[in-house]
Amino acid sequence: MTKNALIIFTRNPELGKCKTRLAKVLGNQAALDIYNYLLQHTTNITKKVNVERYVFYSETINNHDIWDNDYFQKKLQKGSGLGARMYNAFKMLFDSGYQNIIIIGSDLLDLNEELIENAFLKLQTNDAVIGPAKDGGYYLLGLKQPNSSVFQIENWGTETVYEQTLSKLEGKSVYVLKPLNDIDHVEDLKPYKVFENYFKHN
Known about the structure:
The protein has one domain (4-199): Spore Coat Polysaccharide Biosynthesis Protein SpsA, Chain A (Alpha-Beta Complex), CATH 3.90.550.10. 31% of the residues lie in helices and 18% in strands. It is built from six helices and seven strands. Strands 3-2-1-4-6-5-7 form a seven-stranded mixed beta sheet, with helices on both faces.
């Protein structure tokens, strides 16, 4: 068994239940369409990373979707709140014997396989690796051992999540990746030509 594992946290793509901040401006169907595009991108890039891949679903496990069973092992998120669900996913895989574990979301168009592979490489010689998002959160977190405090964040929807997480890692060696653009608001779509039809009238 490889010692490296990639966790992909994803929401089940259901109308009215994903990308709610986009939906307020663009409508539920447009938000779902955008999210499905981002999911497909995440699927495409993570297939190329030579690690064990685990998709953690928010609601129900779907065995017949874009997450091909030949490439992805499927689990259900467990816990009350995002922090608890993320910690439980890490702990499950550490308990299974993995030594280097990275978690990513499923809605970053700027994320690619090279960035993920580099994160695993840096995790070999650091206690943690983190990729800051331009909105103040983070798009990637890698750990070499369970650390519940890292996931005890007061409010996951604020612009201080990245800074709070760094403070929890004080005294550890942390490699910081380049910042990327997280897609949560209509303004976040503007750098991408593929989404131009969604924002040009807003």
